[in-house]
Amino acid sequence: MQLTVVPQNGGRLMQVSFAGHPFLFVNPKYEGKYLPPTQSQWFNYGGDKIWLLPEGNNDEQHWAGGSDLLDDGAYTFRKVSEGQQCEIELTSPADPQSGIQFVRTIRLDADSPRIAFHVVMKNISGHDVEWSMQSVSQYDTADASDRSRLNHDFWTFAPANPFSKYLNRYHVRFGPAENRAASVRDNGLFALHYAHVAAELWLDSTVGWLAVVDGATSYAMIERFRYEGNKPYPGNASVIFWMNGSELRVNDDGIPSLSSGADGENPYYLEAEINSPLCRLRPGETCTLDTEWFPARGSSKFQSIAEAGIVMRPLRTTRGPSGKVTLSGTFGVFFSGRLVARLYDEHGASLGSLPVVNVSPAELVSLATEIPSNEKAARLSLHLQDENGVDRGSLQEVPIRSAEND
Fold first, then answer.
1. In angstroms, rounded to a whole number, what is the distance separating the alpha carbons of residues 159 and 402?
2. CB pairs under 8 A, 24+ apart, for 319-324?
């Protein structure tokens, strides 16, 4: 697990590499360079950073974006700890325009690839301000074997809100309203299949996670956050996806065309964005945003997220004539350790547990195994126990079927 941080370039986390796989987009145009803040241009270095919302140039209550002190200023760097926990702190310049200063900590633990982020937003002005924090992560969507081509098997997912305030349970903020790349599946999952056409899609998702899946390489990143239902979100959006690509424009004669970007090029990347609620702060007050990233193995057959990992092919349990139970399914896990089958009778009484297989986040888990079973077992829950013996939760819990009923 390797994180590359560039404090001078707006405190960016420029790259995350897990098991040799790099996740984030690094713009080759600016790689290894630093350009000082300017109001006339935005320097898109790539990577991951913190922005303000709402965006716009309507008034002083909107963040105009661009390469200002928060996006492009030099952040101070401090090592907080190393050893069992490696933690760093990045502090932005105090920005008189927005009245804001960011302090962001990034932590890695020795026993897992989990990345923990904690952001503090402080009002450094002498008057009240109201802003939302936005975690903006640019994922590389180029073909790993030929970077001049896009990755045709790149996806993002998030749970759609069944009581959404948006038409179709998501909002097209920018781009074509009729977009085959975006859909809400029958299971309530919003799915976005990357295409090289610019689009911004907003979700008022309340469950607290999004998934970025590279089906071509079978790697995935899960971003988790805590949704605060009693607080307002900017434009109601807790999650935003931006697909970078050609923009659809209509000229004065009503003729549509695809633009190739201000610089004549549109690199392949997708942004996954998590928003905090709007925070109204008096002078000196602060509010926080906490998120977690879990790199793992995954595929475009993605079904759901569990506490312990990713479900691609759901768990299936079948009791054969011998009395043994066959387990099948495909998963990605968030911690190294072992899967443990917990058995219950029809009344919910525990019948004990059995080890199933050793697992690692760096490897896809494809189950096709038999375990001995008490004949009274009616239900099975598949838990992940980490290397320290800590229960990390269940991947799935299902009834045990009889072979003759299949």
1. 32
2. 319/373, 319/377, 319/400, 319/401, 319/402, 319/403, 320/370, 320/403, 321/403, 323/372, 323/373, 323/375, 324/370, 324/371, 324/372, 324/373
The whole-model pTM stands at 0.95
Asked if residue 168 and residue 118 are part of one domain, the reply reads yes
pLDDT per residue as tens digits for the range 41-73: 899 999 999 999 999 988 999 998 888 999 999
Last residue of one domain, picked from the residues 239, 263, 297: 297
Element (H or E) spanning 399, and its range?
A: strand 391-399
Please tell me whether residues 113 and 173 are part of one structural domain: yes
279 and 352 in a common domain: no
In CATH, what number is assigned to the domain containing residue 35? 2.70.98.10
How is residue 192 written in tokens?
A: 């976005």
pLDDT, tens digit (0-9, with 9 covering 90-100), for 365-398: 999 999 998 889 999 999 999 999 999 999 999 9
Q: Specify whether 195 is located in the same domain as 320.
A: no
Same domain, 187 and 310: no
Q: At residue 216, what is the residue type?
A: A
Q: Are residues 182 and 310 in the same domain?
A: no
Alpha-carbon gap, residue 345 to 209, rounded angstroms: 32
| CA separation for the pair 193, 375 (Å, rounded) | 45
Burial of 66 (0-12, 13-18, 19+ CB in 10 A): middle
Last residue of a domain, one of 246, 265, 297: 297
Backbone angles phi, psi at 99, to 5 degrees: 80, 20
Closest CA to 104 of 123, 130, 122: 122
d(CA 121, CA 63): 15
Predicted pLDDT at 404? 64
CA-to-CA distance for 241 and 402, rounded, in angstroms? 43
Supply the range of the domain harboring residue 126: 2-297
Residue pair 303/314 in contact by the 8 Å Cβ criterion:
yes
- How many domains does the chain divide into? 2
Same domain, 288 and 325: no
Q: Is the pLDDT of residue 195 over 80?
A: yes
Kindly tell me if the per-residue pLDDT of 264 is higher than 60. no
Residue 29, SS3 per DSSP:
coil
